[in-house]
Design brief:
Distance between the termini: 32 Å
Order of helices and strands: EEHEEEHEEHHEEEEE
Structural class: alpha+beta
Helix content: 10-25%
Strand content: 15-25%
Strand order of the largest sheet: 3-4-5-1-7-12
Largest sheet: 6 strands, antiparallel
Number of strands: 12
Length: about 250
């Protein structure tokens, strides 16, 4: 019997600080999230929001059966700003970006609504941030997937699926769809870029992420990005379920 299609979206936002040529994106992201969280706490009569429990986080487990912990950056991110909001979303700093993850959703429409609510949360954060900044500075965020200079950041989707479905079968059938769906749901991008240097010029592309994908199948999400991500971290009973972690989509 088919399992309920629990799904969710994680969006990393681009960030700059206008008026500060030497700004640190990690510090700016922390300021942005803190500005919103602290304001939220005061509105509901409590000083701080609920934090995030990393005890069951295992991003280095590979669906193909091997664990490659050495390929991951040191786990300093667990000490960065991390909060669970009143609507069930998670709002935090991931690498050098503010990121907002929707709560678990039962339909695609519900996931879309929470993702749109996330945009409002980022706008509210931008409005709250100036009181934390020096005069003349302004934090601005962008819902896109690259900075135009060879750096990309993600918009990831997550789908709960049955463990009984062999991963090889899933990868074989999902690859074509994930590549071709950019035709009708790509966000589009002017120009071309590559993390490895100069590329053939392009006037327009239908997807913002294609320049940054190099593998068909793999565990990584920040380098040598694969079409099919093999991260085996279901956030549910691993004997019954797996999580399809889709990293190829546009914000």
């Amino acid at each position: 019997m088919a399992v309920a299609k629990v799904c969710g979206i994680e969006t990393e936002y681009g960030i700059i600080v206008r008026g500060d040529a030497n700004s640190n994106p990690i510090a700016a992201s922390s300021t942005l999230v803190n500005a919103y969280v602290q304001g939220l706490g005061s509105e509901v009569g409590r000083p701080r929001s609920t934090g995030w429990d990393f005890e069951d986080e295992h991003p280095d487990i590979d669906a193909r059966g091997n664990v490659t912990r050495a390929t991951y950056a040191p786990e300093v991110e667990v000490h960065l700003v991390n909060a669970v909001l009143t609507n069930g979303s998670r709002y935090y700093v991931d690498h050098a970006h503010p990121e907002l993850s929707t709560p678990e959703c039962l339909t695609a429409r519900q996931a879309l609504l929470y993702d749109r609510a996330g945009e409002e949360i980022l706008l509210a954060s931008m409005a709250a941030a100036p009181q934390w900044l020096e005069a003349g500075h302004e934090i601005v965020v962008y819902k896109n997937n690259s900075d135009g200079k060879g750096q990309s950041y993600g918009c990831h989707e997550n789908y709960l699926i049955s463990r009984s479905l062999p991963f090889g079968t899933l990868a074989r059938h999902a690859t074509t769809h994930l590549v071709t769906r950019s035709i009708f749901c790509g966000a589009g991008k002017v120009g071309a870029e590559s993390p490895h240097g100069p590329v053939t010029p392009a006037t327009f592309q239908i997807t913002q992420r294609a320049d940054f994908f190099e593998e068909e199948v793999g565990l990584e999400t920040t380098l040598k990005r694969p079409i099919i991500n093999t991260r085996d971290e279901p956030h549910a009973d691993p004997k019954k379920y797996r999580r399809l972690h889709v990293i190829i989509g546009d914000a």
